[in-house]
Design a protein that fits this description.
Elements: H1 12-22, H2 24-57, H3 59-63, H4 65-93, H5 95-114, H6 119-146, H7 153-177, H8 184-190, H9 193-203, H10 210-215, H11 219-229, H12 232-256, H13 261-266, H14 268-286, H15 289-294, H16 296-302, H17 308-332, H18 338-365, H19 372-376, H20 383-386, H21 396-402, E1 406-409, E2 420-423, H22 426-434, E3 439-440, H23 449-463, H24 470-477, H25 484-513, H26 515-536, H27 545-554, H28 568-571
Antiparallel strand pairs: 1-2, 1-3
């Protein structure tokens, strides 16, 4: 209920499940809006597998790392614009219109990508999809949050995160299903049009957010929706609390005039909310999660698994763990609390990244040697190897780093034995495969490959229930009602700007400093994030939205985090 904090002994998770028979209307609202999260996740995951086959169709993409990064990151550039514009659309036209606009952009982008005849047209389609992703990333959780009873709000917003990870898992299944089909990647990218059409059909029959309706003076419509959401003994108190909250917001709006960036920053509660919300979204990206999701098959290949299909299959496991972690978050988000869950998550992420750093370093320094005899038997030696001063000192990793046009053909009996350093093209690749040898262009064979996969799995298991969900939940509930749309847009823009930076630089970083040191950088960021959460982020578990602003007004940054202090909420008598 809006007017009070739910009792601590009530399990929000069990109550969320009970909605399926007590009030299926609330679940229908959440699932319908959450399809935007499914589309968001599908696009995040599908490009990682499609990129393997796009490289085969467009040789320029295969040879140029920057072009691969552009295909991934132009969607993120579109998402930045979509999130920024989406904040204004959310406040001006409503959450429902924003979700429908996102679906339209998803559909247009999917069709363009499926029909792309060149990398440039593919990039245009990625921009359209990115615009839709940016709008959906803030509109869907905001709609769910405002249409949910307080006691299950965290669990239902977590449902959106589950659908994001479910979309990623679905994308890997789709990728595997189309590996043998003509047009492989075209099918992979085009399938996203279907859920967009489904969501348009569902959203036409669902109402606008009751909070937005109250804010726009359409109270009778809002009351009718609230009566469907809340049980009869709670609904009148909820309506009164929302009326009081909106009246106060309107009074403040009339007194302060139009919203500007300077006004936002001068308002203490908004400034503190933005600092916590934007910071969480920033750290969510800079600990490297979307490099894992965008480049998961490539990372698997860097760990020493050569086959595209093997890379996709193993990536499917990581996507499944991601979805499983989101299910855990639905249970723990209202039971454990947002802040504690984020801290547990980040501690696990640090340990996982440390394991990945050590493993990839071992892979880089203990790769198979190059055999001059094996190499000469193919008659198409890598130019760098043939002109090397000390070819006896060359190993697989040195061969791959010598030039993007070089590849490693492993020994047929044991991939860890010396192999051949050859020119990378289809003829050489087919010749290597015809001798029943594995062909490597991304990473080298290694006995440490399985340890890297374990590290990757642990990273996902720790990240998904906490940092995968907490930033979205906190950002959906931490801002005052009047500023919620614009602040949500700012926070979503932060996500996509930081996502763009990390994704655009990941492959270049792995080439410049190595995969091991790249993961080590992410680990250092995760350590900083732990202190940020302790000092800056408040606990919003069970706090009614009307009370969040009061909590922010009373709460200063907790710099002396080792000292206990009383919660402002508990001081209220």
């Amino acid at each position: 209920m809006e007017g009070g904090v739910p009792e601590a002994d009530i399990s929000a998770f069990r109550e969320c499940l009970s909605l399926s028979w007590k009030n299926p209307y609330v679940l229908r609202l959440a699932f319908s809006a959450g399809i935007g999260g499914l589309l968001f996740g599908y696009d995040t995951g599908v490009i990682s597998g499609a990129l393997l086959y796009i490289r085969d169709d467009f040789k320029d993409v295969d040879r140029k790392t920057w072009l691969q990064e552009a295909i991934v990151s132009t969607a993120l550039a579109g998402a930045i614009i979509g999130a920024a514009v989406g904040g204004w659309i959310n406040d001006r036209f409503g959450r429902k219109v924003s979700i429908l606009s996102a679906d339209t952009l998803f559909f247009i982008g999917s069709v363009i990508m499926a029909a792309a005849s060149s990398p440039s047209i593919l990039i245009v389609g990625r921009v359209f999809v990115g615009l839709g992703v940016g709008m959906a990333s803030m509109a869907s959780p905001l709609y769910i949050s405002e249409a949910s009873p307080t006691r299950v709000r965290g669990a239902l917003v977590s449902l959106n995160s589950f659908l994001i990870t479910g979309g990623q898992f679905l994308s890997y299944l789709i990728n595997l299903a189309f590996t043998k089909a003509p047009g492989t990647w075209r099918w992979m990218l085009g399938v996203a049009a279907l859920p967009a059409v489904v969501q348009v059909g569902l959203m036409f029959f669902l109402p606008e957010s009751p909070r937005w309706l109250f804010r726009k003076g359409r109270e009778e419509e809002g009351k009718a929706i609230l009566r469907k959401i809340y049980p009869p003994h709670e609904v009148e108190a909820e309506i009164q609390a929302l009326q009081d909250s909106v009246a106060l917001e309107i009074q403040e709006a009339e007194a302060s005039g139009d919203i500007s960036m300077m006004k936002l920053l001068k308002t203490k509660t908004v400034r503190r909310g933005l600092c916590a919300g934007m910071g969480l979204q920033l750290f969510q990206q800079f600990v490297g999660i979307n490099t894992v999701m965008y480049y998961s098959p490539t990372i698997v290949q860097l760990a020493g698994f050569a086959s595209n299909q093997t890379a996709l299959l193993l990536s499917l496991i990581t996507a499944g763990l991601n979805a499983f972690g989101s299910i855990l978050s639905i249970y723990f988000i209202d039971k454990t609390g947002r802040k504690k869950l984020a801290l547990i998550s980040l501690c696990g992420v640090v340990l996982s990244l440390a394991l990945l750093t050590v493993t990839f370093r071992q892979t880089e320094t203990h790769s198979p040697m190059i055999s001059p005899i094996e190499t000469s038997s193919f008659n198409n030696t890598c130019p760098g190897f043939s002109t090397a001063v000390d070819p006896a000192g060359w190993d697989c990793m040195k061969c791959l780093k010598a030039s993007p046009e070089c590849g490693f053909c492993a020994d047929g009996s044991n991939t860890l034995l010396p192999g051949a350093c050859l020119v990378s093209n289809d003829i050489t690749k087919n010749q290597c495969h015809s001798d029943h040898r594995a062909w490597y262009t991304r990473g080298c064979p290694s006995k440490w490959g399985w340890v890297a996969l374990i590290g990757l799995a642990l990273y996902i298991i720790f990240f998904s229930p906490g940092m995968g969900t907490v930033p979205w939940v906190v950002n959906s509930e931490i801002y005052p009602l009047r500023y919620r749309g614009i602040c949500g847009g700012i926070a979503s823009t932060t996500v996509w700007v930081s996502n763009l930076i990390v994704s655009q630089s990941f492959l270049s970083l792995t080439q410049a400093i190595g995969t091991a040191w790249t993961f080590m950088l992410f680990g250092f960021v995760a350590v900083i994030a732990i202190f940020f959460v302790i000092i800056v982020v408040p606990e919003t578990k069970g706090v009614p939205m009307e009370e969040v602003e009061k909590m922010l007004d009373q709460r200063a940054f907790h710099y002396k985090f080792w000292e206990k202090r009383s919660d402002p909420q508990s001081q209220k008598a």
